[in-house]
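Example 431.
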Amino acid sequence: MKVLVLNCGSSSLKYQMLDMADEVMMARGLVERIGAAGTAIKHRRIHDNKTYESEIPAKDHKESIEMVLKLLTSEDYGVLEDLSEIEAVGHRFVSAGEHYSNSVIIDQKVLDTLETLTYLAPLHNGAAISGIKACKELMPDVPMAAVFDTAFHQTMPPESYIYPIPYEYYEKYGVRRYGFHGTSHKYVAQRAAQMLKRDISDLKLLTCHLGNGASICAIRNGKVYATSMGFTPLAGLAMGTRCGDIDPSIVFFLEQQEGLNSEDIDEILNKKSGILGISGVSSDFRDVEKAAAEGNERAQIALNVYVQRVKTYIGGYIALMNGVDAIVFTAGVGENDAGMRSLICHNLYNLGIMLDEEKNKTHTKAAVISEEDSRVRVLYVPTNEELMIARDTVGLVLHGTDNAKIEWKPLAGDMMDEVLRAVKRYLKTLE
Ligand code: ADP
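Predicted structure in complex with adenosine-5'-diphosphate:
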């Protein structure tokens, strides 16, 4: 089954075309500055790495998707003979509140419900709805699924999601912790269980999605027990530009002292804080690390704050779960920054966490990087949210269930992945 995965941001569109018979990516791309002057598209066909880069006239998501469909079927850059080869579309939808705890097929009733949820993440949810409506017009007969960043976290118990503020705000407006990056946390948790040859339902895991945005998730027996992002993705860890947890009174203090309104403060806490805000250098860890190495004190403080926050969550979540079997690092920093992994795991041997510094420096795709006798295994695993969205989409379209309900058994490493793909290819020939 060939699946188009769309991730609509407020002014951007990321996409991947996947052939799910053997789970390979066929093409990927990014449209940026939609609706503004100089909308740009970057498209890559995977098998020969042929790239198309250009400015395009696209006033909205619909025109951007039209352009993507043209590229996907173009002679020079395409991977499809005809649009009819697209058998399903999977949409990333950021926040479903408490409405969906699993991915869903989008019918009119679901679309109506999704429209009522725009307020939960106005920019992202609004953009996703535009994308869904555009696909409905452009490919009316192709089934579509919505995959939610919040869904995986819906298993949290009330003590993990209720805020200590008057309960009526939860009842009236759904003000509670939802958690985000759920698709990524779920993917790397499943992958880690496979790599450890363990059943996910027997494991206590801490998944650390450390990218520009960052969150940590405590997963017990395959279900989320706690997570660091909150009502919005602003909570939890210090991030590239987001502040994470701060004393809420700082907001009122800044309002008064600087004469700022809530929009200004929203902008400061989301876009000008985090390691950018502390260092004044950059939101990119590579720049901040370079500056720190050259003696920039604020850059060093920024990194120290970052590390301390991650350690605080790791320690807290180990206490909540009464232990942990494995810690999994993923996303830009988690996958690529061996130095940061080393700092985070430094001096945690009392918790049974012992990183093998040599293995940590290896640059394979995914690896177990703890010492042989470390009680807690440490891994890094590249995340793949698009594949997860495509898997859920295929599951829903073919079997009426997403992969949350498919039992994931441990496989004997990558060899088994190959065998499974071969079996899937064979089954496909029987269809
Ligand atoms: P997002 O999807 O949230 O935009 P990513 O997961 O792609 O973010 O992570 C991007 C961030 O990862 C960059 O801003 C950068 O700080 C960090 N990053 C990527 N590669 C490296 C690296 N080799 N070393 C350190 N940091 C890295």
